[in-house]
Amino acid sequence: MFGRSKTDKAKGGAGFAAALAKDRKFRKELQSAISHGALAQRRAARKLGFFAAATRLNSDPKLRREVKKMVDSLNKAWTRLEKKRSHKLRNLLLLVGIGGAAAAAAKSEVRNKVIGAVPTKGLGGTTPRTIDESIEVSIPVSVAYNQWTQFEDFPLFMEGVDHVQQLGDTRLHWAATVAGRKAEWDAKILEQHPDRQISWISEDGKKTRGTVTFEPRGDSKTLVRLSMSYQAGPAEALGSAAGLDSRRVRGDLDRFKELIESRGSESGAWRGEISAGEKKQ
Questions:
Q1: pLDDT tens digit string along 14-59?
Q2: How far, in Å, CA of 208 to CA of 175, rounded?
Q3: In 10 A of CB 256, how many CB atoms?
């Protein structure tokens, strides 16, 4: 009489479930519980995976060796990086040191050039200077040589030379403007060999020497090389230190080239030979 049948119990359970389904708070709590359960399950799986990997690493010698190699490689790479940084710093310091030394050397060289340009024997003293320049002219060697024997034509291409007078086979008289001052002197021809060389020296105490050589470059070209050696006074020495004399000699050769190539032939010729200041018979 007090008992309930299975059918009644089933009906009661279904009604209770329906009531719970309609309960929003219950549904929300149930959903939260399910979500937390899923998260907990995934965390547990990850932990199991980590412990499994750790267990496998501990029990697998080959895997341990591979991991050790990787760690060693990382350590070596880090060491190389640190050394590279150290080398860069060292090279920077070395470069700064070399730069300072180079600057000091350059300053010393400039100072020595200036000191070397000043006469060593007081204001009236002299300093030897030598200048060498060369040029190729599109003229046969005999034409270039013949034109150079015409010393009285020197003012046409030599800067500062006002007048040259040939006093004889071995003697010349020069008039020129040097460092803004007029000067005159005699010169002696020391060597003169057709198509090869002409050398002369001044007799004014400065012993200015000039040598021009001729080298054939085929049938229609000649290399002309001019060397000037002289005892420079204060003004000339300072000019030489600045490279003015070298430009002047180079300019003389450029003008000689223009003169002889524009003419195409010499204005005269002297084919005699002089050796040691004496004309050969």
A1: 555 555 556 666 566 656 655 555 555 565 555 445 445 555 555 6
A2: 14
A3: 23
Tokens encoding 14: 């279904």
Which tens digits make up the pLDDT trace of 238-272?
444 444 478 889 999 999 999 999 999 999 999 99
Q: Which residue has the tokens 């000339």?
A: 236
Contact 233, 148 (CB under 8 A): no
Closest CA to 242 of 113, 130, 129, 128: 113
Outline where 118-233 has alpha helix (H): 141-148
**Structural tokens at position 196:** 């090869």
* Cβ neighbour number for residue 60 with a 10 Å cutoff: 12
Tokens representing 195?
A: 């198509």
pTM exceeding the 0.70 threshold for the entire prediction: no
Which two tokens mark 65? 């060796």
3-class secondary-structure state, position 217: coil
Q: Are 233 and 126 in contact (CB under 8 A)?
A: yes
